[in-house]
Fold:
Amino acid sequence: MKYISTRGQAPELSFEDAMLTGLARDGGLYVPEDVPTLTKAEIADMAGLSYEEIAYRVMRPFVGDSFGDDEFRGLIQKAYAGFAHDARAPLKQLAPNHFLLELFHGPTLAFKDFAMQLIGQMFQAALTKRGQRIVIVGATSGDTGSAAIEAFKGLDNVDVFIMFPEGRVSEVQRRQMTTPSENNVHALAVKGDFDDCQARLKDMFNDHAFRDEVGLAGVNSINWGRVLAQVVYYFSSAVSLGAPHREVSFTVPTGNFGDIFAGYIAKKMGLPIKELVIATNQNDILHRTMETGAYTKEGVSPSISPSMDIQVSSNFERALFDAYGRDGDAIRSVMNDLSESGSFSISQGAMEALREQFTSGRVSEEETSETIKDMLTRTGEVLCPHSAIGARIGDANLSEVPMITLATAHPAKFPAAVKDACGVDVGLPAHMADLFERSERVTPVANDLTALTSLIRERLKK
Ligand SMILES: *Cc1c(COP(=O)(O)O)cnc(C)c1O
Structure:
């Protein structure tokens, strides 16, 4: 299995190299050259299996010879052993034909653990074999950072630096990043917003001298390994509702387009998905793009669903690549327009291809709070703001096909917003009950490439 860049000018890589590299050297994103498919019988056989076994069957064809069969099974077992629910990704019913896929039973209470815990295991195995050290740098709107730190803290062959926008993450999110005491963990509070953090991360990767000097690796949602791990729960949930004999639809609270792109891959692999619905908050670049065909950056307005406060949706480039018939030149040209003018327009053909795969909706701040309250009344479930955005758009798209809405975080991660909306105080689960008593370690840093690279070089000398 070979991986190619969406911009057509980086070398083809194996699964292992694509995973360890993150962003391609031409600025593009790695995608599989061909998406493997599963037969109807293979999908039907997944009924009743453990999450781990479904994970193995879904991901195995993408991994090639990077890991042996037993080795890969072992990595999957270890990745999900720390989850607080036997089903890993349990389904709950919200209404007739509307289901909630709970993806928040991992160690940091957000769906990011599904990918990050597995990536941690895969990185460790690959690096040990190679006798190599790397530096992971990540940008986070809140949940990626804590999930990465949780997955990589204390590992011998990795240092992990996480940039988060100072003052723009919830207190629980911040403390999850600043309280681990392992000295390979470095939390950096950047003076800027999430898009600034993401832009500086791209700058670092494009600084090839720095990249090679420190052995830079990325685990942001553009990492193919992460997208792949997320494909699994589309299968596990759809199969438990009757796939492949019955179609299902999904609504996905979306920021960087990673999670919903995993759904698109599941569909390409043969899972019968009718609709993939993009749910955005007031930072609605994806919804506007679907409506108008123009991808136009605006400023980020901070919301009560901070993990979706994004205006440059990195993984969208992967969907565009397919929509443009896998034409790397076309992608280079639109991405160039984006960096020069903050905007690009999508060709009519590509827009038709996108609209065939995705629909979209947007939820305001007021509607988000309203939905948290309404869902508590109608179902007894307390949803986090991101999941509430999904549930509202899911409700609006109900049909004869079961709708599965992804619940992307535990409400305890966003206690203030949840309390304001419905009056409920959600406590932290037992394993992190003392989070507010632990001491914090964080380095403030300017929104500037040189400031960041010198800081990282300094830290690595110690
Ligand atoms: C990261 C995140 C999202 C957005 O996921 P993408 O893959 O970036 O679209 C939504 N909700 C929560 C809670 C998140 O942490």
About this structure: The first helix runs from residue 15 to 21.
